[in-house]
Specification:
The protein is of the alpha+beta class. It contains three helices and five strands; from the N terminus they run βααββαββ. Strands 3-2-1-5-4 form a five-stranded antiparallel sheet, with helices on one face. Strand 4 and strand 5 form a beta hairpin. The longest helix has 14 residues.
């Protein structure tokens, strides 16, 4: 199972849009990109990086292409300062690149 943490930052902390959860379930980085701010903190498989929106979309696209989605469930939704976030289990199948 591969892990991801996703946060949305805006002027005021808001609920995570349903489209974010749908995009995770589909493994759709382009759809997720619609919800990203200019600066993005990604945590993928215990590796953290701060990147701009374009780099985040590329990183997510690479992750999704190597890890086919077989399920996604939100375990927790929270707010901190001006950010909203979700923590979930994303089940995937690692694809071989031969």
């Amino acid at each position: 199972m591969a892990g991801l943490v996703f946060a949305v930052t805006s002027l005021f902390a808001q609920d995570i849009p349903v489209g974010v959860v749908v995009a995770f379930k589909k493994g759709n980085s382009q759809e997720l990109n619609r919800y990203l701010g200019e600066k993005v903190n990604l945590v993928i498989q215990n590796r953290s990086e701060s990147v701009d929106r374009q780099a985040a979309q590329g990183t997510l696209a690479a992750f999704f292409s190597s890890n086919k989605v077989s399920g996604f469930n939100v375990n927790h939704e929270g707010k901190r300062d001006e950010s909203s976030f979700i923590i979930g289990d994303r089940k995937s199948t690692r694809l071989n690149s031969s």
